[in-house]
Write a structure and sequence with these properties.
221 residues; alpha/beta; 9 helices; HAD-like_hydrolase_sf
Length: 221
């Protein structure tokens, strides 16, 4: 792997789901529960879902997910279904059923020991972020933790302005979806795409580097 392009990096901004946390199983379960509610209420047709049809929504904020998935759904019904998914995911984290990718915490600790500042940035709610912070002791790894709910679910590239005002440059953004990589379209940052996450083929093509395991990040820096 080429490392020269990452010289001068001091702050590493990391996505969570699909980058550090393997949310596949829990999200699929939560999505199906919410969809069953929609079917039971006559708001959606019964159907069989393939896993990849569900996991493609990981990386989106809940607001953006529903706007793209079922934009014409009644707002009150949508809010209930969205809260169902959020509640189930929160319960999974609080009861020890969340799973990190193998080597994730060790990789984060290794980067901290090298002197990098690590920042958590996820399209999630504050309750979700706090549950995972507590479940995995993420304060040991991250110097700052940001969720898009605290910013009204604006894009990550806009939240970057806040992070830049607190943490030193140069910057690297690591994530599995276009929402992470597009930060580089607006700011002078380097990007690393995680092919093991939930992105579609080609979604990460503009990243400066691609990795197939979170542990590969330690080899880049």
């Amino acid at each position: 792997m080429e490392t020269r392009k990452f010289e001068g990096i001091r702050t590493v901004i990391l996505d969570y789901d699909g980058t550090i946390h393997d949310s596949t199983k829990n999200y699929i379960f939560a999505f199906k529960q919410a969809y069953e509610y929609l079917v039971a209420g006559g708001h959606a047709a019964s159907r069989v879902w393939q896993d990849e049809e569900i996991t493609k929504w990981l990386g989106y904020s809940s607001q953006a997910m529903w706007e793209n998935f079922m934009p014409d759904l009644d707002e009150e019904v949508r809010a209930h279904a969205s809260k169902m998914i959020g509640r189930i995911l929160l319960e999974k984290a609080q009861t020890g059923q969340a799973v990190l990718y193998e080597g994730a915490l060790e990789t984060l600790q290794a980067l901290k020991e090298k002197g990098y500042r690590l920042v958590f940035l996820s399209n999630c709610s504050r309750a979700y972020m706090e549950a995972h912070r507590e479940s995995f002791g993420l304060d040991r790894c991250f110097d700052g933790m940001y969720c898009t709910e605290d910013f009204g679910f604006i894009p990550k590239y806009e939240i970057f302005e806040t992070i830049r005002s607190v943490f030193p440059g140069g910057y690297m953004v690591v994530g599995d979806r276009f929402q992470d990589i597009e930060v580089a379209e607006h700011h002078p940052v380097r990007t690393v795409g995680c092919r093991y996450g939930f992105g579609f083929p080609g979604e990460l093509d503009s990243a400066d580097a691609l990795i197939d395991d979170i542990r590969d990040l330690n080899d880049l820096l």
